[in-house]
Amino acid sequence: MTERRSSWGLSLGFLGIVFLGGACSEDSPDVSVDSAPALSGFNGLSNINGLSNINGLSNINGLSNINGLSNINGLSSINGLSSINGLMTTAAGRKTVSYLIKCALAANDSLVKQDQNGTNYTFAGGIGLCPAWKNGSVANSSQCMESVSACLMANVNTAGVHVPIWFDSNDLAIGWGVDRVNYPMQEGTFFGDIIDTGSLSNIGKAGVTGPVAYFCDGAGFPAGAAGVVAGRLGANQVGAPYLNPFGNGTLCQSPTGLGGPVNIGYYSKGITGSCPVGSNSNPAQGCPDGYQQLAYPYATAEVPWNHGITVWRNNSYTPVFDTSYQYTFSSLVTQGNPMVVDTGASPVQQWNRSANLVTSVFTMASKGANWTISPLNGPATCLDGGAGTNGTGLRLMACSGAASQSWAVTANPLNGSFKIAASSTSRCMSVRGGSAAAGAVIEVDDCNAASTSQQFNVQAIYYTGTGGSSGTGSSSGTGPCAALCSNPTVLATQSYTTASLGTGAVCLQSSFPIDGYSCDNMSGRTFSVNGQTVTCGGNAAPPAMLNGGYCFQATAGGLAYADFATW
Question: What pTM was computed for the model?
Fold first, then answer.
């Protein structure tokens, strides 16, 4: 096998292609072409939106099933990527599309698609793993389905933080090569098919039912090594769409079958001494660039996967947050019963994550090399460290550009958490007294690297409403129903069904990136979505989001057995 020397990227790679997956937004980013083999860049896709739920992959539906995506038709066609239902109809879905196109099409190509409202979006290509999908069927192409799936999975960062990563793959669009200086840690290898639903026999995977999403651990960060990156493998991910089929913590190179190693590596540097410093005790078989073939299942009827992607990374990086995401912050001192930073009281305190309060959800905005942190329900206010003396409680103040509202965020490579320090004093955000109790004040103190009360896990989320289950919301604020009704019922899940709405007026609020809805038996009453009257009877695609979600309303009267569902 030869080493390919071509690359794509937004920044220079010495031995790889730079893939800035996490840098994408609704609009396609600029790209430039360098000359080098393999692939590197930034991840940051908080989850693969448009699967069956917002938390990633489930065992119900793949991307192609109910999300307006088909591998039977070209992406440029109406039936290949629908404009009226599924991925193109929500901001979260379009983010998934942007990553998919970046993985599938080459850097000199792009795809223009409309949403349900007729708005055009241009999605830039990047790697070129499946260029034929733009205009034709790839339903029976294991190369396309495997490589694009692996690319999407490799770009997931459940913390919603953009982190530099380096790709190696059997596919010529990526190739082989390593950069031991800038990307010394072999994180793991991703493989599977998250696009298809049902039997995968058509792509040579007899006995396998899609979607399937796998990874296995790389040799670059053994237990206890300083190689953990927030939102990535090894960092206690929440809502990750993949699993290690060989067993928790099992290295890709460890499984053996009747014929020897199950997974076949590729070594551009040879076997001897090929493992970087800090790797797993330099195993006899060395540390490959990646894997030419992985197999699972493998005990009896072996199923080969020939287009996995191996990811390398550096544990030293500057975190970049995504301004389109929402975040929670949870101190490690509360891991046994997770608490999150909450602005519902002054000074700021920690409160139960399970309460699912809007006051515990934040957006991030860049301020030079630092960040401002604002609650979702108060975007004009910022976390403020005040005078910054030890023990000063954080307060919520009108955003003013003051240094006390500018926070430096530093990654902890031992556990994937973050240190958050006020730029005005360099003192760290901390839980007062190291308390794990609800109501403990969040303050600033002299930084102590060993203190778990100053180490915060960051999680990208979609806020779903007060209480975490169906209940009453508020007509104030900026929610989807804020200007349409008082005290909406907040839906707790993306998939909601009721067969009896009753005859009273109904107002339902969802902050999920839903793929569709249905309403039936609405004779004698009016049904509207985001303030627009619609005709009920059958399935329908949702309109554009309103204030981050959807407001469904039915006037009083009609039939008690009127029904409604979202998915």
Answer: 0.71
